[in-house]
Design a protein that fits this description.
The protein has 297 residues and is α/β, with parallel strands linked by helices. It contains nine helices and nine strands. The chain has a six-stranded mixed beta sheet, sandwiched between helices.
């Protein structure tokens, strides 16, 4: 039996379920999840190795119109992932109406060189009568390799998706894995820690504030049974800074407690976490600052 490996880009609109899917496929928390759009900012790889096969899934930012330098960086990540992948999986949120611009986007994708699989997500929330019209419209697009309804939460049809992807990859007689077999992501622990803090901010704070936040880990020191982590939370306005801290520091304390629990589960040890809030006006429009905060071309 030969070997198969390749890059698989997960692409789709915001909240289509890309991050939830990659976490379900890998069986680890590779990407943070929230109901707010633009949760994913970087391309994040989740590595699935089973027997003679290795699939490297790339979770990409949600497709959206660009308004600032950070948005442009995110959309550049999407284009880069598509161009560098062996297969593209386009995710469509099954709980929402299938609109014409998504049909056009899929049509444009299939005209490129990469094979395209379409996944209709969140089907655990639907019945067949709602899924069928989507399947019917997508079936009219020539060139789609597979159309797969699935549920990441219920783990329904994830094996069908894996098998569809594997069928499209060439087989080699020599082992051609891209990563070591025990790796499940390309991101460092420091990166994941920062994303955990941002996920909790997305959960705790309303409106525009979470989208104007950057997380900078300024100290990450591990001992055998302890990790000391200091984090700067960057916002865009002084008024946002007061909201983030909250009355008597209550909100910041709540954020720290939620983040620390996940960090301890990730690292398998006690975490001493310190959070600091700083305001840097309109940092999302500054190429230099978005680079400083880890959003690098």
């Amino acid at each position: 039996m030969g070997y198969k490996s390749g890059y698989v880009s997960l692409v789709g609109k915001a909240n289509a379920g890309k991050s939830t899917l990659i976490n379900a496929l890998i069986g680890e928390k590779v990407a943070i999840v929230s109901p707010k759009p633009q949760t994913t900012r970087n391309n994040i790889m989740g590595i699935l190795t089973k027997g003679n096969n290795q699939l490297v899934f790339v979770d990409t930012p949600g497709i959206h119109l660009t308004k600032n330098a950070l948005d442009k960086y995110m959309m550049k990540n999407v284009r880069s992932a598509i161009g560098g992948s062996d297969i593209v999986v386009y995710l469509i949120d099954g709980s929402k109406k299938l609109v014409d611009d998504e049909i056009k986007y899929v049509q444009n994708l299939v005209e490129k060189e990469n094979p395209v699989v379409v996944a209709i997500t969140k089907v655990d929330l639907l019945n067949y009568e709602k899924v069928y019209p989507m399947l019917s419209r997508l079936a009219n697009i020539k060139g789609i390799k597979e159309i797969i309804p699935l549920s990441s939460l219920k783990k329904r049809n994830l094996d069908v998706l894996e098998n569809a992807i594997l069928k499209l990859l060439p087989e080699t007689q020599e082992k051609n894995f891209i990563f070591d077999e025990d790796e499940y992501t390309d991101k460092s622990l420091k990166f994941i820690v920062a994303e955990i803090a941002r996920e909790k901010a997305l959960y705790l704070y309303d409106e525009e504030i979470p989208h104007g936040l950057a997380i900078e880990v300024i100290k990450f020191e591990e001992e055998e049974n302890l990790a000391n982590i200091d984090i700067d939370i960057i916002c865009e306005r002084d008024t946002h800074k007061a909201i983030l801290i909250g009355k008597r520091g209550y909100k910041l304390k709540e954020l720290g407690e939620l983040a620390r629990k996940d960090m301890e589960n990730l690292l398998g040890k006690k975490v001493m976490l310190k959070l600091f809030v700083k305001a840097k006006k309109n940092w999302r429009d500054s190429p230099n600052q978005i680079t400083d905060f880890g959003y690098i071309d």
